[in-house]
Write a structure and sequence with these properties.
Layout: H1 8-21, E1 31-34, E2 54-55, E3 77-78, E4 86-90, E5 95-101, E6 104-109, E7 121-123, E8 126-128, E9 135-137, E10 143-145, E11 157-160, E12 163-166
Antiparallel strand pairs: 1-2, 1-4, 3-12, 4-5, 5-6, 7-8, 8-9, 9-10, 11-12
């Protein structure tokens, strides 16, 4: 009976393949927008509407990203496109923009602090990672549920004339 040891190259190749697929939802549309509540079967409070998780058509190049602000930087989104109590993940820019309260905009890295997966949605007041279930608060990026060891790092944005741009 012979035993073959797995060589380092095979292990590294397998790890790279796993890491590459981490966080991919098969989308590729550039962003995901959700508003509160976005869990299946959940309903909104009377008098409000709950939008289902949908790709952010507004984050595509045909919309605000194609237009430039007065600073010349391309806009991520219009302020009206970020739901109050929710947010939008911009996969290409690896940033998530939230609006915890009306008129208050925050931005965080979209890279999970656990193993580097890309967060994929904002729902029920949290930014969610699909890989291992980490959740972060939309107001400050702090960890609500692990295994993430640290908060999401804040990103700098400019909010001007109804547009949101990376600083």
């Amino acid at each position: 009976m012979t035993s073959r040891a797995t060589n380092r190259r095979t292990v590294l190749f397998a790890a790279a393949a796993l890491t590459t697929g981490c966080g991919s939802d098969g989308g590729g549309d550039g962003g995901t927008t959700t508003s509160v509540p976005a869990t299946p079967g959940a309903s909104a409070s009377p008098g409000t509407s709950a939008a289902p998780s949908t790709p952010a058509a507004s984050a595509t190049p045909e919309s605000p990203a194609a237009s430039a602000t007065t600073t010349g930087a391309p806009a991520l989104a219009k302020t009206s496109e970020i739901p109050v109590g929710g947010g939008t993940v911009f996969k290409e820019q690896k940033v998530v923009v939230t609006q915890p309260a009306a008129g208050e905009f925050k931005a965080f890295s979209a890279i999970c602090t656990h193993q580097g997966c890309l967060v994929n949605k904002v729902a029920d007041g949290t930014i969610d990672c699909p890989c291992h279930g980490s959740k972060y608060r939309i107001a400050d990026g702090s960890v609500v549920a692990g295994p993430a060891p640290r908060p999401l790092p804040a990103e700098q944005i400019n909010v001007s004339e109804g547009s949101i741009t990376l600083a």
